[in-house]
Design brief:
heterodimer, A: alpha+beta, 19% helix, globular, B: 434 residues, 18-stranded antiparallel β-barrel, TP_0789-like (chain A), signal (chain A)
Amino acid sequence: MLTKKILISALSALSLLVVSNVSFALSAEEQKGLDISLEAKKRDLGWQDSTADMLMLLRNKQGQESIREIKMKSLEVNNDGDKSLTIFNKPRDVKGTAFLSFSHPVEADEQWLFLPALKRVKRISSRNKSGPFMGSEFAFEDLSSFEVEKYTYKFLAEEELNGLKTFKVEQYPADENSGYTRRIVWIDTQEYLVHKIDFYDRKDSLLKTLSFKGYKQYLAKHWRADTQEMINHQNGKSTELKWSNYAFKTGLSDGDFNRNSLKRAR
Amino acid sequence: MPLSLSKPLNKSFVKLLSNSVKLSVIIIAVCVSLTLSKPVLANETASDIEFEVSGNVAIEQRYFFKDALYSEQLSHSQTSFSVEPEFYWQWNDGSDSIIFTPFYRVDSHDDQRTHGDIRELAYVHASDDWELRVGIRKEFWGVTEFQHLVDVINQTDGVEDFDGEDKLGQQMINLSLVNDWGIVDVFLLPGFRERTYAGEEGRLRGPLVVDENNVSYESSAGQQHLDFALRWAHSVGDFDLGAYWFHGTNREAYLSPSPQEPQSNIVSSSLQQYYAQMDQLGVDVQATLGEWLWKFESIYRSTSLEDFWATQGGFEYSFIGVFDSTLDLGLLMEHSWDSRGEVALGAQGSLLQNDLFIGARLAFNDMQSSEILMGLGSDLDHNAFSFLIEASRRFGDNFIASFDVRLLQSNEPNDLLYTLSNDDHAQLSLAWYF
């Protein structure tokens, strides 16, 4: 009986050690990298919900352009990933198509697609992180909400980027389905906003660079970039994202993110 | 040509018109709903009405490789033109909306395929945890790909395409209630739509033409029978579940050769349709486990003529980024089973009593959304198979070109596929979206 008790307490002490080990094991650079992202996430908390319009300009090597017009609705969920509804308006053949996602920091996201021609709601696999979104240079994972748990971190240096003082941090995706081995992210030391990301593919060669431009502050708190430009160094294609009509705390609720709202999304 | 087209056009318009008369009940209901929502409209200053038009116009060319099996049928080439605009109004920030989607197709040969339909004419009011939808609508249920077994609300627009995925608009009053334990939908379906079948000149039909004027019903209310359906659907973790009960007119007609007229010396040349009453229970389940999608559908149907079970089940597996590229490859396999077993041609039953389907879907994930789908269906009880390829690609910003090939083969003279084995065809279509 006594030995059993000792064993249990020894085991629990051990398990406690294992759990706390995670933070213990972090080097100073890893801890600093994590702290920067925790701070960035913390500063943006409390946006509750948001709506915005997104224009995607796809350009190939020859300079040919193609347009995607998309509306986004998002709901902040405390202690879990966000919920989002993505509604397609252009190209015209996919008009009315809508995408509902419940993201989770660690477990698989839950995703549904509504196909207007058949009026069909389809649950889809969320394993496709690395695939291109709508034929663009953005992968699905590049557009999903940022959760601290999705990466491990390593602070590299303080660096000046376009006259801004920034932290240069390396981020390693926790998800084995990610298309990247690592990302290098430049976050400014003033507002903790991401200004540039370099993406390294599975062979660890530089694949893409994403630049953020035209940050604007909403509700005196939440910063959002007007323009994001993704350049693919390997295929010469690029995609520009232009955001407009940002609105926060519009009163969206769980009821705006279910099967029914997916079917009538406009 | 314009002369030969004018007759079916008129006929279809009359059909369309009589159909809309039958819908008067619905329209009154829509008006009542609109009036109800009006005070809200007047109170809110920000409730501007937004209006939107979109839709598509398409031209389609079919080519049948072999000569027709029956003398009245078109020989090789069939051209058609279709238009489907969508008019949409919303107000109260999208809480109230009206959608109107008429559809019309003109076919170069098949009178029956030259037809129109109101795909949608409905008013929807959305609240936080309930929605009311009144009018003509389309409602899809199910999870599988090769057969839509549990999908029962809308009648199949059989002349549109071989796959049965095109549906006729259905008049309905639908109340949808959102609960923590799932979404419950109640449907009242006043008025029944008869299935559309290929006409005399049309291909992809059996030896006898289905007579659109020789239709009878089990219910004394006939086409006016009020059908009812109750459905529950919910997502629990990796599982998406649905279950329903449907009570009303069977969407599938029992077809039998028309009795010969006394003075006539022709052997029966057409099939008459008989729509029985049915009770149907259905379930659909999808488990989304990583790259695997496991799918299962089952129905139990009870009519005064027969009771039976049927299932459709299988999986879809996705390879993401095959060959170190941005291409996705999906592999599909499904099996169909029906408790009625093998049936002779003309008898009641399902073609898909013990059939295996395999398929591959290749998505290029390029700017043009290029996609290829291949499927092979095989009857495990006797030697019959069907094969299809569907490829599509966007051109410019607003055009979609699709190319389909369908091959049908059977060695069993009792099989419907046997009567269609001269109907192998390729189809090219170009659609402009606006």
